[in-house]
Amino acid sequence: MAGLALLAGCGESAPPDIGTTRTEIESLVRKYHEAMDKGDLKVVQEMMAPDCSLIWSGDDPVYGRENALKILQGFIDYHKGKDLLDKRKPLFDNIRVRQDGVIAIATYLVAFREAKDLPPGEELFTQIYRRESGHWLLIHDHRVGRRR
Predict the structure, then answer these.
(1) Which residues contact residue 93 at a Cβ distance below 8 angstroms, ignoring those fewer than 6 apart?
(2) Phi-psi region of 44 (alpha: psi -120 to 50; beta: other; left: phi over 0)
(3) How many domains does the chain have?
C-alpha cells in the first residue's frame, strides 16, 4: 500500500491518524448510501474525485466522474421506476478502514430488503478515497451484489 500514497500525488503534509480517518470514512460511506437511496446524486457528485472509477458486479469498468454519475443515475432511475427509492434501508456490517497516507480503503457489506416479496440482498463494497485539500474524495467504488 505504500505505493498507493505515492501514486496519489497529493501535497498534503500530514494526513490524519487512523482513528480520525476511520471516523471520517465511515461517515462518508453512510452519507454515500443515504444520498443514493434518496436519489440525491448531487451529494454523491460532491464526494467524487474527477478521476474516479466505478466497477459494479458483471459490468465493465467506468472511468471519470461524469461517466460514473451516468451509471449511478441509472441505479436511481431503476429504483424510482419500481417505487423502491428511499425504501432499501441498508444495514451496514463491519465497515473496515485501512489507511496509507492520503489513501483510505473502506470494505464493508450492506444488507438490504427492497420489497417484502423479494429475498434479502447483499452488496459487498470496496471504496477507495484520496485526501485532497483536507477532504476525502471517492476515487473508486467497487460493488458486487448477491441475493441470499
Answers:
(1) 108, 109, 110, 111
(2) alpha
(3) 1
Helices (H), the chain: 2-8, 18-38, 41-47, 65-81
Range of 97's domain?
15-147
The reply to whether 1 falls in a domain is no
Would you say residue 142 lies in a domain?
Answer: yes
**Tens digit of each residue's pLDDT (9 = 90 or more) over 2-37:** 444 444 444 556 889 999 999 999 999 999 999 998
pTM: 0.85
- Residue 120, number of CB atoms within 10 A of its CB: 11
Residues 6+ apart with CB under 8 A from 4: 100, 101, 103
Residue 94: exposed, middle, or buried by beta-carbon count in 10 A (0-12, 13-18, 19+)?
exposed
